[in-house]
Amino acid sequence: MFAYLVKRVFQAIAVMFVISLIGFAIQDNLGDPLRELVGQSVSEEVRQELRDELGLNDSFLTQYLRFAGNALQGDLGTSYFFKEPALDVILKKLPATMELVLGATIIIIGLSIPVGVYTAIYPNTILSRIVMGVSIIGISIPVFLTAILMIFVFSVEYGWFPSYGRGEIVHVFGPWETNFATVDGWMHILLPSVALASIMLPLFVRLIRAEMMEVLQSEYVKYAKAKGIRPWRIYFVHALKNTLLPVITVGGVQIGTMVAYTILTETVFQWPGMGFMFLEAVNRVDTPLIVAYLIVVGFIFVVTNTIVDLIYGLVNPTVNLARMGA
Amino acid sequence: MSLLSVRDLSVKFAMRDNTVTALNQISFDLAKGERLGIVGESGAGKSITGFALMNLLSRPGFIDSGKIMFLGDDIVQMPEAKMRNIRGNKMAMIFQDPMVTLNPVLTIGQQMVETLMAHRKLSKAEAEQIAIVKLREVYIPSPEDRLEQYPHELSGGMRQRIVIAIALLLDPQLIIADEPTTALDVTIQADIMELLLELCQSNKVGLILITHDLGVVSQMTERTLVMYAGRIIEAGRTREIINDPQHPYTQGLINALPQQTKPGQRLKQIPGSMPSLTAIPKGCPFSPRCEFVKDRCHTEAPETVQYANVEVACHEVNRLHTDKAEEIKA
Ligand SMILES: Nc1ncnc2c1ncn2[C@@H]1O[C@H](COP(=O)(O)OP(=O)(O)OP(=O)(O)O)[C@@H](O)[C@H]1O
Ligand code: SF4
Ligand SMILES: [Mg+2]
Question: Which ligand is nearest to the CA of B304?
Fold first, then answer.
């Protein structure tokens, strides 16, 4: 178990290394820090001096090591626009984004399992056919379109839900302010969460359905029937656990991907999270903030994947974590 | 009184635009505690018969007509809830491959306890006690520890013993074992068969043993059905069928046994192969492969008749006999 953990952590570090290289390459090539610092009126001589001072004339390796060393200490540069450490800017925006991802995840898990199981058990009912048809449409409509449509229908036409912002939020601790403490907060987070979930939900319904249908054909399900086990127990104890094992792995990757989809959702709903911030940073060519965002999102991605792998190993009795560490 | 009485049972498969017949009006009986073998080449309909008895045919298969009287009730007409109460309880099944029969994510204990609790009002602790007793009966060492283990932690032979223990959990009247050892290591096949025989005898459980090994049938069973293309073409006491088979197909099977072949001689296989369900020959389904075939074999399906201590479905039973008599004279 411990050996496996160490192995996974090393893999995670390797991935973070690659991400830091990409981040550094962007830093190195995107925009000119001098122009941001001193404007255009300064002479070429002074510029060269400043370059030396800032270490911009050092070798690639020296510069990268400095970058990585600073990053390890939590220093991802200073945002040109906010004039604050980039990491601080992001960490302030992080809770809003994570709450959005959490909302979408709850919707996905809460709906995909019952719907996936139902359509697998009764593949030929009218309801199942409708669900499968809608899921195809859901997969093929881009998130921002879903978001705009939802705003149009539920905010503009009917006025049931607010169309932008987080609404009334309650401070929890540190930078974390939550939407889940007030009715107004819930009203504000619902539409963006549904929009964000809209691309993954049909994917998960189809995945769970396909896995479940395969499991229902298996010998051990036939055997359970031959033992006289009740159908609900066959579906939810024998079949569902085997169905969800592969889904967990895919699910972990998708949660990471969802963080990226927040850029679109947050922009449409003016959600003050780090996705919205990222798009603004791109518009302002705020390079340190862009790089910091990439590294933080990469970090979240790597951490969720590692955790999901560990969970998979723990819930699947046929995976021997001790042996996998070898 | 007979435990099981199957009458004119037909099973069909619904294909895209027609149906094919997988079992064609088969009839047989099984007395309490009797052991019956079902033999035949691959595709004869042996497994279909087993699943039909459990009313567990998976789509597109279905029972088209006939009766399966078990303990006085007709399984074909039985409501699902009542049938579920028979499965695993009065009638248990042992599947072919223990590597895939047990659920990989549930412990042995969970899979045994759930079976008991599906049919009897018991606490989990009581059910575990029964499970331990049954595991001991199939010679599983330290059964208490096994309850906590997952199937993948056990060998194939061990798993099949557990499947046998599960079959015996509720003291059934009938066990259907579909090639229970073909997936196992050759060295332990005989042990498992011996165990099954011993347990059936000591618990007076009826057994339907599906296999294509005539040697196994002769050790394990009292009566035998020989199946071909979804029909029973010969039935009788196992000893008679092995020693004095009447149907050309059964004779072919027995001649193909390695024991029947002198050293150095090639195995005498029956030429040709089992027809697929979509192309079963008219008349006698065995006619394309039969060395005694006559004109009417192509047009008329042979009736089942009593002949020389067995029931056999062949137009030429008499002729075969005279042939043999002439052979002996010559
Ligand atoms: N789902 C299905 N759809 C169509 N035909 C099927 C289906 N399942 C089985 N069959 C056919 O039914 C026939 C009998 O199959 P069955 O499994 O009973 O054979 P068997 O005697 O058990 O053979 P084996 O020794 O290979 O196990 C075969 O011809 C097979 O192709
Ligand atoms: S009925 Fe005819 S074809 Fe069929 S087994 Fe007998 S002799 Fe052969
Ligand atoms: Mg079979």
Answer: 2
